[in-house]
């Protein structure tokens, strides 16, 4: 039961992510959803199994990058990171790679809902950086 994730843990994890990460995720999602600008030049020379393999590698890399970026901010805001941070990073990664979500701001709606649900307990605009004297 130590690694189980409750809905309240996910809501708390979503609320603990600083607002800047949501803005960056929305910007990245808008860029990723411009298929002709980003993906077509990268993957136009590949087809079949190679294209599927490259897509899976892209998804896995995006997941681990968002997990790495978000785990530090969630740990600083809540004080502990665990399975809920993995679920929140997976939500971010899936949102970034989901097709045609560049015009919707679903992630920002999740942030507003989680922030209201936690009564603004974890609200932070910019994450605190340790080691830089900030």
Taking all Cα atoms into account, the compactness measure Rg is 16 Å
> Helix tally?
6
Distance between the termini: 37 Å
Rounded mean pLDDT score: 77
Backbone structural class: mainly alpha
Per DSSP, what share of the residues sits in E-state strands of 2 or more residues?
Answer: under 5%
How would you describe what is shown here?
With 134 residues, the protein is an all-alpha fold. The protein has six helices and no strands. The chain has helices spanning 7-16, 19-32, 39-43, 49-78, 83-97, 106-117. Helix 1 packs across helix 4 (49-78), helix 1 (7-16) packs across helix 6 and helix 2 (19-32) runs parallel beside helix 5 (83-97). The longest helix has 30 residues, at 49-78. The protein starts with 6 loop residues before the first helix and ends in a 17-residue tail after the last helix. The model has no long low-confidence stretch (mean pLDDT 77).
Give the structure's gist in a few sentences.
The protein is 64% helix and 0% strand.
Keywords:
134 residues, mainly alpha, 0% strand, globular
Give the SSE layout.
Blueprint: H1 7-16, H2 19-32, H3 39-43, H4 49-78, H5 83-97, H6 106-117
Helix pairs in contact: 1-4, 1-5, 1-6, 2-5, 4-5
């Amino acid at each position: 039961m130590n690694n189980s994730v409750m809905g309240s843990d996910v809501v708390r994890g979503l609320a603990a992510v600083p607002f800047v990460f949501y803005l960056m995720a929305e910007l990245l999602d808008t860029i990723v959803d411009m298929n002709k600008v980003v993906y077509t030049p990268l993957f136009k020379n590949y087809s079949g199994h190679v294209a599927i393999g490259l897509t899976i590698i892209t998804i896995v890399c995006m997941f681990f990058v968002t997990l790495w970026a978000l785990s530090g901010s969630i740990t600083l805001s809540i004080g502990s990171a665990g399975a809920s941070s993995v679920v929140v990073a997976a939500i971010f990664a899936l949102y970034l790679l989901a097709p045609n979500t560049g015009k919707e701001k679903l992630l920002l709606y999740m942030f507003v809902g989680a922030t209201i649900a936690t009564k603004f307990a974890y609200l932070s605009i910019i994450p605190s950086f340790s080691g830089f004297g900030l």
